[in-house]
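Technical annex B. To support the medicinal chemistry partners, we prepared a structural model of the target in complex with succinic acid, based solely on the information shown next.
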Amino acid sequence: MASMSVKLFGKNLRNPVMNASGTLGYGEEIEPLWGIENLGAYVTKGLSLNPHNGNPTPRVWEERQGLINSIGLQNVGVDRFFNEYFPLFKKKKTPIIVNFFGFTEEEYVACARRIKPDNLIIALEMNLSCPNVKQGGISFGKDPEMVYKIVKEVKAVTRIPIIAKLTPEVRNLREIAGAAYDAGVDGFTLLNTMPSLVVDIEKCSVPIRGGLSGPVLRPIALKAVYEIFSSLHVPILGSGGIMNYSDALSFIMAGACAVQVGTATFVDPYTIPKIIQELKNYLEQLRCPRISDLTGVAHG
Ligand code: SIN
Protein backbone atom coordinates (compact mmCIF):
# COMPACT_ATOMS: atom_id res chain seq x y z
CA MET A 1 0.00 0.00 0.00
CA ALA A 2 1.39 3.40 -1.00
CA SER A 3 1.65 5.93 1.80
CA MET A 4 -0.18 9.21 1.42
CA SER A 5 1.00 10.57 4.73
CA VAL A 6 3.24 13.61 4.95
CA LYS A 7 5.08 15.14 7.88
CA LEU A 8 4.63 18.84 8.55
CA PHE A 9 6.48 20.52 11.43
CA GLY A 10 7.03 17.15 13.08
CA LYS A 11 3.37 16.09 12.88
CA ASN A 12 1.93 13.39 10.65
CA LEU A 13 -0.88 14.31 8.26
CA ARG A 14 -2.86 11.43 6.72
CA ASN A 15 -2.50 13.00 3.26
CA PRO A 16 -1.15 16.19 1.66
CA VAL A 17 -4.54 17.69 0.69
CA MET A 18 -6.10 20.64 2.54
CA ASN A 19 -8.76 23.18 1.77
CA ALA A 20 -7.67 26.76 1.06
CA SER A 21 -8.64 29.20 3.80
CA GLY A 22 -12.25 30.34 3.66
CA THR A 23 -13.47 27.69 1.22
CA LEU A 24 -14.96 25.10 3.59
CA GLY A 25 -16.80 27.35 6.05
CA TYR A 26 -15.94 26.42 9.64
CA GLY A 27 -15.76 22.73 8.82
CA GLU A 28 -19.23 21.59 9.83
CA GLU A 29 -20.84 22.91 6.61
CA ILE A 30 -19.22 20.15 4.50
CA GLU A 31 -20.13 17.36 6.93
CA PRO A 32 -23.44 16.42 5.21
CA LEU A 33 -21.38 15.63 2.06
CA TRP A 34 -18.12 14.15 3.34
CA GLY A 35 -16.30 13.98 6.64
CA ILE A 36 -13.81 16.69 7.51
CA GLU A 37 -11.48 13.96 8.84
CA ASN A 38 -10.70 13.04 5.20
CA LEU A 39 -8.50 16.13 4.93
CA GLY A 40 -4.79 16.09 5.56
CA ALA A 41 -5.52 19.25 7.56
CA TYR A 42 -8.36 21.77 7.70
CA VAL A 43 -7.44 25.43 7.15
CA THR A 44 -9.70 27.93 8.95
CA LYS A 45 -11.24 31.02 7.42
CA GLY A 46 -8.98 33.96 8.32
CA LEU A 47 -9.60 34.73 11.99
CA SER A 48 -9.11 38.06 13.70
CA LEU A 49 -9.03 39.05 17.35
CA ASN A 50 -12.57 40.44 17.09
CA PRO A 51 -15.41 39.26 14.82
CA HIS A 52 -15.65 41.03 11.48
CA ASN A 53 -18.71 41.56 9.26
CA GLY A 54 -17.05 41.72 5.85
CA ASN A 55 -18.27 43.40 2.67
CA PRO A 56 -21.72 44.02 1.20
CA THR A 57 -22.83 41.74 -1.64
CA PRO A 58 -21.99 40.79 -4.35
CA ARG A 59 -19.10 38.94 -2.74
CA VAL A 60 -18.40 36.32 -5.38
CA TRP A 61 -18.28 36.54 -9.15
CA GLU A 62 -17.73 33.76 -11.64
CA GLU A 63 -15.08 34.43 -14.26
CA ARG A 64 -14.16 32.43 -17.38
CA GLN A 65 -11.11 30.79 -15.79
CA GLY A 66 -11.71 31.53 -12.15
CA LEU A 67 -13.63 33.18 -9.37
CA ILE A 68 -13.44 36.64 -7.85
CA ASN A 69 -14.24 36.98 -4.15
CA SER A 70 -14.67 40.02 -2.01
CA ILE A 71 -15.73 38.53 1.30
CA GLY A 72 -13.97 41.27 3.18
CA LEU A 73 -12.45 38.99 5.82
CA GLN A 74 -15.77 38.19 7.48
CA ASN A 75 -15.19 35.87 10.41
CA VAL A 76 -16.53 34.96 13.84
CA GLY A 77 -13.34 35.94 15.67
CA VAL A 78 -10.71 33.71 17.15
CA ASP A 79 -12.45 33.06 20.51
CA ARG A 80 -15.75 31.96 18.98
CA PHE A 81 -13.94 29.67 16.54
CA PHE A 82 -12.17 27.85 19.38
CA ASN A 83 -15.26 27.72 21.63
CA GLU A 84 -17.83 26.71 19.03
CA TYR A 85 -16.14 25.05 16.07
CA PHE A 86 -12.85 23.58 17.25
CA PRO A 87 -14.61 20.80 19.30
CA LEU A 88 -15.65 19.14 16.00
CA PHE A 89 -11.98 18.86 14.98
CA LYS A 90 -11.10 17.54 18.43
CA LYS A 91 -13.85 14.93 18.18
CA LYS A 92 -12.68 13.87 14.72
CA LYS A 93 -8.98 14.15 15.58
CA THR A 94 -8.49 16.34 12.50
CA PRO A 95 -5.41 18.59 12.43
CA ILE A 96 -5.97 22.26 11.66
CA ILE A 97 -4.00 25.21 10.34
CA VAL A 98 -5.29 28.49 11.74
CA ASN A 99 -5.31 31.28 9.16
CA PHE A 100 -5.25 34.66 10.92
CA PHE A 101 -4.86 38.36 10.19
CA GLY A 102 -4.97 41.90 11.55
CA PHE A 103 -5.25 45.42 10.22
CA THR A 104 -2.38 46.57 12.43
CA GLU A 105 0.79 44.87 13.63
CA GLU A 106 -0.64 44.86 17.13
CA GLU A 107 -3.74 42.97 15.95
CA TYR A 108 -1.65 40.27 14.25
CA VAL A 109 0.41 39.84 17.39
CA ALA A 110 -2.59 39.84 19.74
CA CYS A 111 -4.41 37.29 17.59
CA ALA A 112 -1.41 34.94 17.40
CA ARG A 113 -0.89 35.23 21.16
CA ARG A 114 -4.53 34.32 21.80
CA ILE A 115 -4.20 30.90 20.07
CA LYS A 116 -3.03 28.35 22.60
CA PRO A 117 -0.88 25.46 21.37
CA ASP A 118 -2.75 22.19 20.91
CA ASN A 119 -1.69 18.84 19.49
CA LEU A 120 -4.09 19.33 16.58
CA ILE A 121 -2.83 22.80 15.62
CA ILE A 122 -0.15 22.22 12.99
CA ALA A 123 0.61 25.86 12.26
CA LEU A 124 -0.69 29.42 12.13
CA GLU A 125 -1.03 30.68 8.56
CA MET A 126 -0.46 34.46 8.46
CA ASN A 127 -2.52 36.18 5.82
CA LEU A 128 -0.15 38.94 4.75
CA SER A 129 -2.51 40.37 2.13
CA CYS A 130 -4.40 42.62 4.55
CA PRO A 131 -4.16 46.39 4.25
CA ASN A 132 -2.10 48.04 6.98
CA VAL A 133 -4.54 50.73 8.13
CA LYS A 134 -1.81 52.64 9.96
CA GLN A 135 0.26 52.98 6.81
CA GLY A 136 -2.36 54.18 4.36
CA GLY A 137 -3.72 50.76 3.49
CA ILE A 138 -0.64 49.25 1.82
CA SER A 139 -0.79 45.49 2.08
CA PHE A 140 1.57 44.05 4.74
CA GLY A 141 2.77 41.44 2.30
CA LYS A 142 4.06 43.86 -0.34
CA ASP A 143 6.83 45.47 1.68
CA PRO A 144 9.81 43.28 2.68
CA GLU A 145 10.63 45.42 5.73
CA MET A 146 7.06 45.19 6.98
CA VAL A 147 7.05 41.43 6.36
CA TYR A 148 10.30 41.00 8.31
CA LYS A 149 9.04 43.06 11.24
CA ILE A 150 5.62 41.51 11.57
CA VAL A 151 6.83 37.91 11.19
CA LYS A 152 9.51 38.56 13.83
CA GLU A 153 6.94 40.05 16.23
CA VAL A 154 4.50 37.17 15.75
CA LYS A 155 7.26 34.57 16.14
CA ALA A 156 8.15 36.16 19.47
CA VAL A 157 4.72 35.49 21.00
CA THR A 158 3.97 31.92 19.97
CA ARG A 159 5.69 28.56 19.78
CA ILE A 160 3.25 27.31 17.11
CA PRO A 161 4.98 27.17 13.68
CA ILE A 162 4.20 30.15 11.44
CA ILE A 163 3.38 29.86 7.73
CA ALA A 164 3.34 33.07 5.65
CA LYS A 165 0.65 33.16 2.95
CA LEU A 166 2.01 35.47 0.26
CA THR A 167 0.26 37.60 -2.32
CA PRO A 168 0.98 37.28 -6.07
CA GLU A 169 0.64 41.07 -6.38
CA VAL A 170 4.39 41.71 -6.14
CA ARG A 171 7.32 41.71 -8.54
CA ASN A 172 9.82 40.70 -5.87
CA LEU A 173 8.33 37.54 -4.44
CA ARG A 174 11.77 36.10 -3.65
CA GLU A 175 12.70 39.21 -1.68
CA ILE A 176 9.40 39.14 0.25
CA ALA A 177 9.79 35.42 1.00
CA GLY A 178 13.43 36.01 1.95
CA ALA A 179 12.38 38.69 4.45
CA ALA A 180 9.90 36.29 6.08
CA TYR A 181 12.57 33.57 6.12
CA ASP A 182 15.14 35.87 7.75
CA ALA A 183 12.55 36.69 10.40
CA GLY A 184 12.22 32.99 11.21
CA VAL A 185 9.10 31.92 9.31
CA ASP A 186 8.59 28.14 9.32
CA GLY A 187 6.89 27.73 5.93
CA PHE A 188 4.97 29.35 3.09
CA THR A 189 1.58 29.10 1.42
CA LEU A 190 1.97 30.12 -2.22
CA LEU A 191 -0.14 31.94 -3.31
CA ASN A 192 -3.16 33.98 -2.24
CA THR A 193 -5.59 35.47 -4.80
CA MET A 194 -4.75 38.24 -7.29
CA PRO A 195 -6.53 41.61 -6.92
CA SER A 196 -8.93 42.17 -9.83
CA LEU A 197 -12.22 43.82 -10.80
CA VAL A 198 -15.22 43.46 -13.10
CA VAL A 199 -16.93 46.12 -15.24
CA ASP A 200 -20.66 45.89 -15.95
CA ILE A 201 -20.97 47.49 -19.39
CA GLU A 202 -24.75 47.89 -19.15
CA LYS A 203 -24.73 49.70 -15.83
CA CYS A 204 -21.39 51.42 -16.52
CA SER A 205 -20.25 50.35 -13.07
CA VAL A 206 -17.85 48.14 -11.14
CA PRO A 207 -19.97 45.47 -9.38
CA ILE A 208 -17.03 43.78 -7.65
CA ARG A 209 -13.36 44.24 -6.83
CA GLY A 210 -11.72 41.28 -5.17
CA GLY A 211 -9.26 38.41 -5.26
CA LEU A 212 -9.11 36.31 -8.40
CA SER A 213 -8.58 32.58 -7.83
CA GLY A 214 -8.91 29.42 -9.92
CA PRO A 215 -7.15 27.90 -12.95
CA VAL A 216 -6.06 31.28 -14.32
CA LEU A 217 -3.67 31.57 -11.36
CA ARG A 218 -2.19 28.09 -11.50
CA PRO A 219 0.94 28.68 -13.63
CA ILE A 220 1.76 31.80 -11.60
CA ALA A 221 1.47 29.95 -8.29
CA LEU A 222 3.46 27.00 -9.71
CA LYS A 223 6.30 29.34 -10.66
CA ALA A 224 6.28 30.78 -7.14
CA VAL A 225 6.46 27.29 -5.59
CA TYR A 226 9.21 26.19 -7.99
CA GLU A 227 11.37 29.26 -7.34
CA ILE A 228 10.94 29.45 -3.57
CA PHE A 229 11.59 25.68 -3.24
CA SER A 230 14.95 26.09 -4.93
CA SER A 231 16.05 28.99 -2.73
CA LEU A 232 14.54 28.57 0.76
CA HIS A 233 14.48 25.31 2.65
CA VAL A 234 11.16 25.34 4.51
CA PRO A 235 7.91 23.50 3.76
CA ILE A 236 5.68 24.99 1.06
CA LEU A 237 1.92 24.55 0.73
CA GLY A 238 0.91 25.00 -2.92
CA SER A 239 -2.31 26.84 -3.67
CA GLY A 240 -3.76 28.29 -6.85
CA GLY A 241 -6.28 26.78 -9.24
CA ILE A 242 -5.89 23.13 -8.26
CA MET A 243 -8.88 21.45 -9.93
CA ASN A 244 -7.83 17.78 -10.02
CA TYR A 245 -5.14 15.32 -8.96
CA SER A 246 -2.78 16.15 -11.82
CA ASP A 247 -2.82 19.84 -10.83
CA ALA A 248 -2.09 18.76 -7.24
CA LEU A 249 0.80 16.58 -8.43
CA SER A 250 2.29 19.42 -10.45
CA PHE A 251 2.51 21.54 -7.28
CA ILE A 252 4.07 18.67 -5.34
CA MET A 253 6.62 18.02 -8.08
CA ALA A 254 7.42 21.76 -8.20
CA GLY A 255 8.28 21.63 -4.48
CA ALA A 256 5.11 21.69 -2.36
CA CYS A 257 4.87 19.18 0.47
CA ALA A 258 1.09 19.66 0.57
CA VAL A 259 -1.59 21.43 -1.45
CA GLN A 260 -4.65 23.56 -0.77
CA VAL A 261 -7.80 23.29 -2.87
CA GLY A 262 -10.20 26.27 -2.93
CA THR A 263 -12.10 27.41 -6.01
CA ALA A 264 -12.61 23.83 -7.27
CA THR A 265 -14.82 23.09 -4.26
CA PHE A 266 -17.32 25.68 -5.52
CA VAL A 267 -17.48 23.86 -8.87
CA ASP A 268 -17.78 20.40 -7.31
CA PRO A 269 -17.94 20.07 -3.50
CA TYR A 270 -16.52 16.54 -3.78
CA THR A 271 -13.29 17.72 -5.48
CA ILE A 272 -11.14 17.25 -2.36
CA PRO A 273 -12.05 13.60 -1.63
CA LYS A 274 -11.76 12.86 -5.37
CA ILE A 275 -8.24 14.34 -5.50
CA ILE A 276 -7.20 12.30 -2.44
CA GLN A 277 -8.47 9.06 -4.01
CA GLU A 278 -6.91 9.83 -7.40
CA LEU A 279 -3.53 10.64 -5.85
CA LYS A 280 -3.67 7.25 -4.07
CA ASN A 281 -4.49 5.50 -7.37
CA TYR A 282 -1.62 7.33 -9.08
CA LEU A 283 0.89 6.20 -6.44
CA GLU A 284 -0.30 2.61 -6.68
CA GLN A 285 -0.20 2.54 -10.48
CA LEU A 286 3.32 3.94 -10.42
CA ARG A 287 4.35 1.66 -7.55
CA CYS A 288 5.61 4.77 -5.81
CA PRO A 289 5.80 3.93 -2.09
CA ARG A 290 5.31 7.44 -0.67
CA ILE A 291 3.74 10.68 -1.91
CA SER A 292 6.36 12.56 0.07
CA ASP A 293 9.05 11.14 -2.30
CA LEU A 294 7.56 13.26 -5.08
CA THR A 295 8.12 16.70 -3.53
CA GLY A 296 10.43 18.71 -5.76
CA VAL A 297 11.13 15.94 -8.31
CA ALA A 298 10.53 18.40 -11.18
CA HIS A 299 13.83 20.03 -10.20
CA GLY A 300 15.67 16.97 -11.53
C1 SIN B 1 -11.64 37.84 1.98
O1 SIN B 1 -12.17 37.48 3.04
O2 SIN B 1 -11.99 38.90 1.41
C2 SIN B 1 -10.57 37.01 1.35
C3 SIN B 1 -9.38 36.93 2.18
C4 SIN B 1 -8.13 36.63 1.41
O3 SIN B 1 -8.16 36.26 0.24
O4 SIN B 1 -7.05 36.77 1.97
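Notes passed to the chemistry partners:
The chain has one domain: 6-299.
The radius of gyration is 18 Å.
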